Amino acid sequence: MAKDGRGAPVGRRVMLGVLGLGVLGAATGSYVQNSYDNLLAQISSRDPTGVTGLLPGGGGFRFYSVSESIPHRSDQDYKLTVDGLVDRPGSYSLADLHAMPSTRLVRDVQCVTGWRVPHYAWTGVKLSDLLDKAGVQPGAKALRFTCFDGVYTESLTLDQARRPDMLAAYRMDDKPVTAAHGGPVRLYAAPMYFYKSAKWLSGITVTDHVEPGYWEHYGYDVDAWVGKSNGRDDDPTS
Ligand SMILES: Nc1nc2c(c(=O)[nH]1)N[C@H]1C(S)=C(S)[C@@H](COP(=O)(O)O)O[C@H]1N2
Ligand SMILES: [Mo]
Predict the structure, then answer these.
(1) Mean pLDDT of 19-31
(2) Which of the listed CATH numbers 2.30.180.10, 1.10.8.50, 3.30.479.20, 3.90.420.10 matches domain 79-218?
(3) 64, 171, 193: which to mutate for ligand 1, most atoms within 8 A of CB?
(4) Whose Cα sits closest to atom 24 in ligand 1?
């Protein structure tokens, strides 16, 4: 796992992320359960999601990273590990993922802070296919996602992960996922706010409980269904 950058000065990166929170800094480390409206008010006054900015030519996407730079991994060096409560832990190269059945989804990308990119195509491997290959053991309840930025994490319940619209995505708009957008492979959790879609995906660990992800420690809903957690957005799947 150290090869995924976890030997790097993670503490400093995490601090940079926390400093980026601004007014939310006061909530550091605590689990803010019932202040979602408050959180959204703070978000609209100051976008807290770390280093952000409009990407030139990004087609309406904003760039988000809680680490201080864009981590790079070549297509040749890329590996996705699948481990934890599985019969066959493994490691998949980009070529391995390309060789598996692919799914292309066209959906609206929706960030919880309000911006949206309508009708955008993502292609990749269904998480359920990776889970079937790995052989999920009894007692498994959730997935934990780790990233080769060494900082970001996300989670899904096993039931959520088995949905057909949950992908390990390697193409966006029918082209390779760029490094800025989390390439070579990022999570694409289509029915959820975009913070679920962990960029620079490096590991999937099957666990017996949901371990909330990076932003979820600062109050974001652990179940990030679009339209259900901030009560304001339409559900693009309905
Ligand atoms: N590794 C990593 N993944 C991440 C983030 C991040 O900071 N680091 N930010 C999340 C958030 S809040 C959003 S809105 C999207 C932004 O993706 P984009 O930069 O491709 O627009 O990535 C999500 N995945
Ligand atoms: Mo976001």
Answers:
(1) 35
(2) 3.90.420.10
(3) 64
(4) 198
